[in-house]
Design a protein that fits this description.
Elements: E1 3-8, H1 11-14, H2 27-30, H3 33-36, H4 39-44, H5 46-61, H6 67-74, E2 80-85, H7 91-95, E3 100-102, E4 105-111, E5 119-121, E6 142-145, H8 155-163, E7 167-171, E8 193-196, E9 211-213, H9 217-235
Parallel strand pairs: 1-2, 1-7, 2-3, 7-8, 8-9
Antiparallel strand pairs: 4-5, 4-6
Helix pairs in contact: 6-9
Bound molecules: adenosine-5-diphosphoribose (APR).
Length: 236
């Protein structure tokens, strides 16, 4: 089976009602990134940071996968599929994708500030990280999110996966945030790269021979998945 590696960003969840970051109505329009998504914000006002992520978590309960997420799962019938997502939502999992690596963390998890390997699922009935929710080392539990200015612990694992790709697909990301955007440089020469995003023709940070599909995820992913499934069937 050929291996498809898919890099997704906020755009794939836009049609599920989750705001992107940098579009004109994006999430960062309403917040200063440095107030809610940096280690300094946590130091200065951890309650504000907790509130921000607890709101995101509650919003997630009302969100469902769209055709973008759903069509990706269909590829698994004829390909080995690895998703690398920059998203902290769980819509790929909800859709049924088997292999999802969360580069920037997960809203549904919390972790210790002292021991980064102490990671827990947030209790479904509480659905929030509470003030006073302490780790075994006596410190407030924090969101399991990679903030601006923090290292991305899974980037090397992601780069290795990208190197193994026979086909690479990028969906709904502005390719503006590194190191995630740099993953494209790990694609082996000659491997087809597809980029699905309404602004696909405007984004400079993809390689010259990338096949650009300037569509919303629900349309563009459905088209490409059908095409790739046809190819796989004809190859057999
Ligand atoms: N379908 C596909 N793409 C869409 C759609 C849609 N329906 N609507 C918008 N988009 C595209 C936009 O054109 C844009 O290119 O989604 C992209 C969203 O870009 P960003 O808001 O920059 O989000 P992303 O690339 O995921 O951001 C990367 O930055 O803020 C940090 O950690 C955060 O993971 C995030 C990272």
């Amino acid at each position: 089976m050929k291996k498809i590696v898919v890099l997704t960003g906020a755009g794939i969840s836009a049609e599920s009602g989750i705001k992107t970051f940098r579009d004109s109505d994006g999430l960062w329009e309403n917040y200063r990134v440095e107030d809610v998504a940096t280690p300094e914000a946590w130091e200065n006002n951890y309650e504000l940071v907790l509130n921000f992520y607890n709101e995101r978590l509650q919003q997630l309960d009302k969100a469902f996968p769209n055709d973008g997420h759903n069509y990706l799962t269909k590829l698994e019938s004829h390909y080995e599929v690895q998703i690398i997502t920059q998203n902290v939502d769980d819509l790929h999992e909800k859709a049924g994708s088997s292999n999802v690596l969360h580069l920037h963390g997960e809203l549904r998890k919390k972790r210790s500030q002292v021991n980064p390997d102490y990671i827990l699922e947030i209790d479904k009935t509480e659905n929030q990280i509470k003030k006073g929710d302490l780790c075994p080392w006596g410190q407030q539990m924090r969101p399991h999110i990679v903030w601006f200015g923090e290292a991305v612990p899974l980037i090397e694992e992601a780069a290795k996966l990208v190197e193994q790709a026979d086909i690479f697909i990028i969906i709904g990301t502005s390719m503006a945030v590194y190191p995630a955007a740099g993953l494209i440089y790990y694609v082996k020469p000659g491997i087809p790269i597809y980029y699905i995003d309404p602004k696909a023709n405007e984004t400079p940070n993809v390689s010259k021979n990338t096949i650009r599909i300037a569509e919303k995820a629900s349309i563009g992913v459905a088209q490409l998945v059908n095409e790739l499934l046809e190819k796989a069937k004809n190859a057999n």
